[in-house]
């Protein structure tokens, strides 16, 4: 990739924030920042010192969890050295600001007991604010893979971006964006394990190759219980997928179900994270079949039935 192209791909946040044009030189005060009164009267963007109680958190914040220990460490650093990197806010009214990016710094500053905080003051509509917040977090924060995936999905849904356009904004190729988005198709239990760091992105990518949710959940459980390596999971995933495909070839075509019965079948499959088959005869009698892959998988299903 050429140097010019790399610069173009990496400028997503900078272009949105328009730093060179928007940041107006701050007149030095005793603490080196422009006072809040100037921020209130000037429509231009710039760096100001703002009362920390006048800032509300970003309603579009993609990050949902913060490491408390890391916050305490950052707080102590801010207490000793001050906040070196300003947060970014938009003006929402007289002495009222909404956070665009920097919630971790804002939280740590509050823990450190700061009354005022340096901030870039921007003018942004809701979509720009969402996009700036998402890109800022994706590029600068250690989001877990699910938070990144959710951020990508929000940019596609709410900012009307295509996957290749999204890739350009966050300096990632389309295949990387696709791999993150595919995580959101995994069962909720697996997504929670990715979020909590119980399994890695490599484990998750192997699980995605399996079409059967029940098989995904079974292998996921084995990863947790046995601490399987990514390579081992890839091998097992291939075997499970082959077995699932062979089973599909042998299966008889399902008889036509009414719309209502099909809806019930789909809802049950979603609930139990496995294929569910409903069979109904001409007299309205029938059976519900819930397959399981192992004794552990059977136990999981029985627990969901409060057995």
**Outline type:** elongated
Strands ordered across the widest β-sheet? 1-5-3-4-2
As a whole number of angstroms, the C-alpha radius of gyration is 25 Å
List low-confidence stretches: 1-45
Protein name: ParB/RepB/Spo0J family partition protein
Domain ParB-like N-terminal: 48-138
Organism: Mucilaginibacter straminoryzae
Family: Belongs to the ParB family.
List the helices and strands and how they pair.
Blueprint: H1 3-9, H2 12-17, H3 19-22, H4 36-41, E1 46-51, E2 55-56, H5 68-81, E3 87-93, E4 96-101, H6 103-111, E5 116-122, H7 126-140, H8 145-158, H9 163-170, H10 174-182, H11 188-195, H12 201-208, H13 213-226, H14 230-250, H15 259-272, E6 277-280, E7 286-289, H16 295-304
Parallel strand pairs: 2-4, 3-5
Antiparallel strand pairs: 1-5, 3-4, 6-7
Helix pairs in contact: 5-6, 7-8, 8-10, 9-10, 12-14, 13-14
Organism: Mucilaginibacter straminoryzae
GO cellular component, one term: chromosome
InterPro entries: Chromosome_partition/occlusion (IPR050336), HTH_ParB/Spo0J (IPR041468), ParB/RepB/Spo0J (IPR004437), ParB/Sulfiredoxin_sf (IPR036086), ParB_dimer_C (IPR057240), ParB_N (IPR003115)
């Amino acid at each position: 990739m050429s140097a010019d192209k790399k610069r173009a791909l990496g400028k997503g946040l900078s272009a949105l924030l328009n730093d060179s044009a928007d940041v107006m030189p701050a007149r030095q005060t005793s603490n080196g920042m422009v006072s809040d009164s100037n921020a209130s009267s000037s429509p231009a963007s710039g760096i100001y010192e703002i009362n920390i109680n006048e800032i509300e958190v970003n309603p579009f914040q993609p990050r949902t969890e913060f490491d408390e220990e890391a916050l305490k460490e950052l707080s102590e650093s801010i207490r000793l050295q001050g906040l070196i990197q300003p947060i970014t806010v938009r003006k929402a009214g007289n002495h009222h600001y909404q956070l665009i990016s920097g919630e971790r710094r804002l939280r740590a500053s509050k823990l450190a007991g700061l009354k005022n905080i340096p901030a870039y003051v921007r003018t942004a509509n809701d979509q720009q604010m969402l996009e700036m917040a998402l890109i800022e977090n994706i590029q600068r924060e250690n989001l877990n893979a699910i938070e990144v995936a959710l951020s990508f999905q929000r940019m596609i849904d709410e900012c009307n971006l295509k996957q290749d356009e999204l890739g350009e904004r966050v300096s990632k190729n389309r295949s990387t964006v696709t791999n993150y988005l595919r995580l959101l198709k995994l069962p909720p239990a697996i997504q929670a394990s990715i979020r909590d760091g119980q399994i890695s992105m490599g484990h998750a990518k192997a699980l995605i190759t399996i079409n059967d949710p029940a098989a995904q959940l079974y292998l996921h459980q084995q990863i947790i219980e046995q601490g399987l390596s990514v390579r081992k999971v890839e091998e097992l995933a291939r075997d499970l997928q082959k077995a699932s495909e062979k089973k599909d070839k042998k299966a008889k075509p399902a008889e036509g179900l009414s719309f209502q019965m099909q809806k019930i079948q789909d809802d049950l499959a979603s609930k139990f994270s496995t294929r569910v088959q409903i069979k109904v005869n001409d007299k309205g009698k029938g059976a519900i079949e819930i397959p399981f892959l192992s004794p552990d998988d059977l136990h999981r299903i029985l627990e969901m039935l409060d057995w």
